[in-house]
Design goal:
- The complex is a heterodimer.
- Chain A contains 11 helices and 8 strands.
- By secondary structure, chain A is α+β, with helices and mostly antiparallel strands.
- Chain A has 3 domains: about 80 residues, Acyl-CoA dehydrogenase/oxidase, N-terminal domain (Butyryl-Coa Dehydrogenase, subunit A, domain 1, Orthogonal Bundle), CATH 1.10.540; about 110 residues, Butyryl-CoA Dehydrogenase, subunit A, domain 2 (Beta Barrel), CATH 2.40.110.10; about 130 residues, Butyryl-CoA Dehydrogenase, subunit A, domain 3.
- In chain A, the strands form 2 sheets. A 4-stranded mixed sheet of chain A has the order 1-4-5-8. In chain A, strands 2-3-7-6 form a 4-stranded antiparallel sheet, with no helix packed on it.
- In chain A, a hairpin with an 8-residue loop joins strand 6 and strand 7.
- In chain A, helix 1 runs parallel beside helix 3 and helix 7 runs antiparallel to helix 8.
- The longest helix of chain A has 26 residues.
- Chain A is globular, with a radius of gyration of 21 Å.
- Chain B has a domain of about 150 residues: Butyryl-CoA Dehydrogenase, subunit A, domain 3, CATH 1.20.140.
- Classes of the chains: A alpha+beta, B alpha+beta.
- At the A-B interface, helix 7, helix 8, helix 9 and helix 11 of A face helix 7, strand 9, helix 8, helix 9 and helix 11 of B.
């Protein structure tokens, strides 16, 4: 065990930090889930890509620099500490990306990775349906083969970033006579496919960040099938593992939030806001900070295991519960520190509203706790 | 960045696990409760023969010259077995204190060989674990640390809920103390070693409670099904697993910091003990709840780990103490 960073890892950190400091946009962008903000964030993806930072852990031929998993975690730490804009294409890069590497054909990889890395094609996830949330395998949207196309009928919902995304990765039922996991397929759907309509839905923060998708004889090329027809469930579970494990939510964002929380306490204590910091809340700040550190070290431990040939199994559910509940705790603690001014629209309230979605998306934390009990601890399912 | 143990470290851990499985089963722990000294007869000598007792002493003193990083894995096993042997006070704290401050002291080599037993008057308020039976006690002295031989100690036993934990209120004549160090940093380091060791033991105890309970809820049936199929039960167990999943790497991180000579390892030790204390507290609570009334009996072995868990969670600083320590460093 050696928990120091190597000289090359440290040099990597310095390079990331320097680039971010020199390239941080002078003005804050509009919110990502507005038409104006969406395009600003798309432009930022291009800026990152041109400097080789949009997908640093990917192969060079797709625009990456083949950095190690530890270096990618370092990148994430520096990224969130720097305060640069958020990533509008995380659904593509961190969710679909790893799945496409595992299940895509060479043609699909060559077709989809370069524009994903450049931000030319922003992705959204089309999984949930009005009657299929936690019970995803009950989904009913059908995709029936007709020559070189699938013909889609049905409805998707809670499609984050779906209002303006260029592509949507969907799970559909290619065999309408099946129920549950069998007969499902993983299909990549262009947002301009004829027969698809989308309707933005206001999220709790008021931004139209969700979308409903309506398919009415929507035709999609069969070349966009990821994995085999009727074999979509294991492909979907690979994406889910990325969503729960360290891909989507690496420790960087929570470490940065923990530092901002400590800053808030110190700033209030120094007279900012004219009220002082409530000393009774000091240990709550410390508790959230400790949990962020624990997530950091658990992740480096897991990264070392993965780099030594290990795999991420159902313990991804541990990660998901931990980071999502940590995020709520970080922001709830900040709001308690702010007292009556906590309700004001601002950084901590908007962060709190976003954090509250964490225990719900990517499989609710109740489902994750069932998975932990059944598949990690070995408690009987029923 | 490499967060893995070596094969040698893991093999040693496995060997110690096997030793405890063979020599420290629940009936041996029960026998320790009823014994004069609260110890498992013969176990300490076997641990010494494997090098566990003297692990942290220099090789020149007959020890293994190994570090906190090697030791935490063994302390987890000690907690997993509910071993009452004084691995924390003696091996984790007292031997390194002597090795740093008095490398030629005869108690260092005797302690490394398991022939003398050392206790520590830190981490438990006015009480000392094993204070009546120890050959000598490391005590606070001025801003630093001193050593008091047993013949200069007056010990008044204090009954613990865990009857293998022989606590004593200890007093000694100030002029009987041999100064080991006047350095307050050395005293803090001794406390950190104890807190880290207790954190590792907490993790082991919590893991055993979780394993016990998973086994129980799988076998025990009500309404024609294992009680574990109920979501409320599953979530009790998942919450314990979650607390352990993130306490354990923090303990390893803190151990590495001490072993690698971090300039100030205290914050990470406090983070580790806060998480480990919380994990074992939750493990105790949920293990008992999931067992139901059988867990509430003295006939059933669960009580051995419950009582050890309660004791360890609060010794060498509670979760609240350590969160306050982190807050003091972080927030001023």
């Amino acid at each position: 065990m050696d928990l120091t960073f190597t000289d090359s890892e440290q040099a990597f950190r310095d390079e990331v930090r320097t680039w971010l400091a020199e390239n941080k946009p002078a003005e804050a962008f509009a919110p990502m889930d507005t038409p104006e903000g969406f395009e600003q964030h798309r432009g930022w993806e291009r800026t990152l890509f041109d400097a080789g930072w949009s997908v640093p852990n990917w192969p060079v031929k797709y625009g990456g620099r083949e950095c190690s998993l530890v270096e990618w975690l370092i990148f994430e730490e520096e990224y969130y500490l720097s305060g640069v804009p958020g990533r509008v294409n995380t659904n593509g890069i961190t969710l679909l990306g790893p799945t496409l590497f595992e299940f895509g054909t060479e043609e699909q990889k060559d077709r989809f990775f370069p524009p994903m890395a450049r931000g030319d094609e922003i992705w959204a996830q089309g999984w949930s349906e009005p009657n299929s949330g936690s019970d995803l395998a009950s989904l009913k949207t059908t995709a029936v083969r007709d020559g070189d196309h699938y013909v889609l009928n049905g409805q998707k919902t809670w499609c984050s970033r779906g209002a303006w995304a260029d592509w949507i990765f969907c799970i559909v039922r290619t065999d309408p006579d099946t129920e549950r996991h069998a007969g499902l397929s993983y299909l990549l759907v262009p947002a301009d496919a004829p027969g698809m309509e989308r309707r933005p839905v206001g999220r709790l923060d008021g931004e139209p960040a969700f979308a409903e998708l309506f398919f009415d004889d929507c035709r999609v090329d069969v070349a966009n099938l990821l994995g085999g027809e009727g074999e979509g469930w294991p492909v979907a579970m690979a994406t889910a593992s990325s969503e729960r494990g360290l891909n989507l939510r690496a420790p960087g964002r929570f470490l940065a939030a923990a530092e901002r929380l400590a800053d808030l306490y110190r700033d209030l204590g120094a007279g900012a806001d004219g009220r002082g910091a409530d000393p009774d809340l000091a240990t709550e700040v410390a508790d959230a900070y400790i949990k962020a550190q624990a997530y950091r070290w658990r992740t480096f431990q897991k990264a070392s295991e993965l780099m030594a040939g290990g795999t991420m199994g159902s313990e991804a559910s541990y990660m998901k519960v931990w980071w999502s509940e940590l995020d709520v705790e970080l922001h709830a603690t900040a709001l308690r520190l702010l007292g009556a001014s906590g309700e004001l629209v601002g950084e901590w309230m908007s962060g709190y509203l976003f954090a509250l979605s964490g225990p719900i998306y990517a499989g609710t934390n109740e489902i994750q706790r069932n998975i932990i009990a059944e598949r990690v601890l070995g408690v009987p399912r029923k | 960045m490499n967060f893995t143990f070596t094969d040698d470290q893991l093999l040693f851990r496995d060997a110690v696990r096997d030793l405890f499985a063979g020599e420290c089963p629940p009936e041996a722990v029960r026998a320790a409760w009823d014994s004069d000294d609260g110890r498992v007869a013969g176990l300490w000598a076997k641990m010494a023969a494997m090098g566990v007792v003297g692990l942290t002493a220099p090789e020149a003193s007959g020890g293994m010259g190994m570090t906190e990083l090697d030791l935490v894995l063994l302390l987890e096993e000690s907690g997993f077995a509910a071993s009452p042997e004084p691995l924390t006070a003696h091996t984790a704290v007292a031997l390194p204190v002597l090795a740093e401050a008095a490398p030629d002291h005869p108690l260092l080599s005797a302690g490394a060989a398991g022939e003398a037993t050392l206790a520590v008057a830190l981490g438990h308020g006015d009480l000392v674990l094993g204070g009546a039976a120890a050959d000598a006690i490391v005590v606070p002295h001025g801003d630093g640390l001193g050593l008091v031989p047993a013949e200069n100690v007056a010990a008044a036993p204090a009954a613990s809920v865990d009857e293998s934990r022989r606590l004593a209120a200890v007093t000694w004549a100030p002029d009987a103390v041999t100064e080991l160090t006047s350095d307050p940093a050395a005293r803090q380091r001794a406390f950190d070693r104890g807190a880290l060791a207790a954190a590792a033991e907490c993790v082991g105890v919590a893991q055993r409670l979780l394993d016990y309970t998973v086994e129980y809820v799988t076998e025990r049936e009500q309404f024609g099904k294992p009680v574990g199929v109920n979501q409320a039960v599953k979530h009790h167990l998942s919450n314990v697993g979650l607390a352990l999943e993130f306490a354990r790497p923090m303990v390893y991180r803190a151990a590495w910091g001490m072993a690698a000579g971090d300039t100030d390892p205290s914050p990470e030790v406090s983070m580790a003990k806060a998480l480990a204390s919380d994990a074992v507290d939750l493990a105790c609570r949920n293990a008992l709840q999931c067992h139901g009334a059988i867990g509430y009996t003295v006939e059933y072995d669960l009580q051995l780990w419950l009582k050890r868990g309660w004791a360890l969670a609060a010794s060498w600083g509670s979760a609240a103490d350590h969160r306050r320590a982190v807050a003091a460093v972080l927030l001023g």
